[in-house]
Amino acid sequence: MTELLDQLKVDILxxxxxxxxxxxxxxxxxxxxxxxxxxxxxxxxxxNQGWLVAHGKVGVMVPxxxxxxxxxxYQMRALLECQILEYAIPNISHEVIGKARDINLQLNSxxxxxxxxxxxxxxxxASLYKVANRPTLFNVxxxxxxxxxxxxxxxxxxxxxxxxxxxxxxxxxNHLSVGDxxxxxxxxxxxxDEAGKELVxxxxxxx
Length: 207
Prior knowledge:
Blueprint: H1 2-13, E1 22-23, H2 25-32, H3 36-49, E2 53-55, E3 59-61, H4 67-88, H5 94-107, H6 114-129, H7 135-148, H8 152-155, H9 162-177, H10 181-206
Helix pairs in contact: 2-3, 4-7, 4-10, 5-6, 5-9, 6-7, 9-10
């Protein structure tokens, strides 16, 4: 199931499954060489995560991407992730920072797919946020990050944001390691906000 979900996401990000066109279970079953049952289950998960939307009475399609949605997602992320990081900071140990650094090193690999990169990026952020012990807020932040991953093809493609993101992750962890909470929160806000603004500007220019 996980492998099928990842492959569907890869094909969505790469444009192999065309945006705005209906997808049929039978066609997907033949394309991926599996029965309709795992396809049906995968579609349900992807609809829940926002990767697919309803089309007609029983169909689904890959939704179009738009700057308004992207702007909303990044503005919400900037607010809520800074809040949960503030809650988490008293509980962020050297062990937590070490785990986040290990994930950031994995993100340096050039061989990662967009789906793998998106998952690792979230795991890095999540490793810091989990220790806030705010499960409701954490779940909302996780949903927002899943939504944002649909736009990663732009950020790591034409916007070439990978190196900037990696450097900012490292700076964030440096601030946390020396207990400078104000700089850490300010950097996190800038990290999310500026990436969002770059993306929105690009989507506006190309729409």
